[in-house]
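Example record used in the benchmark description.
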Amino acid sequence: MKRKVLSTLLAATMLTGLLAGCGNSSEPAANNNSEPAAENPAPAETTPAADSANAETQAPAVEAGDEGSVLNIYCWNDEFYRRIRDHYPNYEVIDSTHGTIGDVSVVWNITPNDDNAYQNNLDETLLRQADAATDDKIDLFLVEADYALKYVDTEYTMPVKDLGITDADLANQYQYTKDIVTDSSGVLKGVSWQGCPGVMFYSREVAKDVFGTDDPAEIQEYVKDWDTFNETAETLKAKGYYAASSANDTYRVYSNNVTSKWVVDGKINVDDNIMKWVEDSKALVDAGVIGTHELWSDDWSQGFYPEGKVFAYFGPAWLVNFSMAADKEGSIGNLGGWAATEGPQGFFWGGTWICAATGTDNPSLVKDIMLQMTANEEIMKEIVIADDDFVNNKPAMNAMAEDETYSSKILGGQNPLAMYCAGVESLDLSNLSIYDQGCNEEFQNAMKNYFDGNTDLDGALDLFYKAVVEKYPELTY
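Model output (structure tokens):
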């Protein structure tokens, strides 16, 4: 109970700071993709600063000086740990949660995302940050795009310029990765080593069986827009294949191509492209060419293997490399059986950002980690080659896209990087808002009832509206 109360207070504090920073505007700040966790306004005394945006803007840059003896890093899995372990200069491993950098002990506080446990733990610890012993303070923590604003638009995160990081240092990074962690007053509050443009991954064997070719350029003609994709789904069905594992596989593609925000003038708004996803998905589900499985479920994952009979999944590099059983014997990825093509529309999904916690006693080390892991071109190339990741560095990615010696084993020897590079430059985040995570989750939950025949469309929309208003009482519909 204590954790829940503390988490709610922290989130409400963050929402209060956001509204102050926006001049109490009813319109959420642009260039973010996250949800406030508060369901009720917090008491005034829990607000950490009356005008955190102005305070952050005027704060002097951190001067290099005595550093702390312990660097505390908070994250939800071991991905960043592996990046640091494998690529950060002078990192020495003690065990899976402890290491050293020079004379500094590094402590990894890893709490899985399940049931919001990571954010709850982070929230509670940040609330204690000001009074914590020096060696217990959070120094840096990681956030995802869907909830970045919850932390970015508060005083709990430091502007990167206050660490001494300049615009010139980050000039080679993709703009959208900066937009996601820029607060409502235009201050950059984090950095990322990743870019996450999405493509369509398809089974080479299915492609050859149905279309007589697995060439990406030729397959693109069968999926070049949604109407063509839907027609192709019927062709796949006739040969005994599913076009995709689930309607949820295509959701991110549609939701990243909206022309309006989820909330307009305090009212919940369902964009036309979201409704097109509903219309298209319902037709495909009724035709039996896609399912309604939850992402990450066992049923959804069956298509990672040939016997699953699934043609395509949609996602960025991390999906096919780390989430589609490529390390499992007999999987399509392990056999090098996937290929990539652009698909019906460009989109992005996910990513991880590094934020410096206000109050860190290791500002110089945090700065160096940020710069080495997100702006060092040679390290960026190492990550591409060793980890098959798409990195947040234009020169590195352009060079690797043209490197004839680079290829992806999972993609059957294909080099997809030029495709990713083209996609990441076209990303438009102008319609992202602080309500995106909650609205996206509740919309998919509600529409599953409709797709499965448990309610009609009006009933599903009603379920959605009520769930969102319960989560965000300030909204109407």
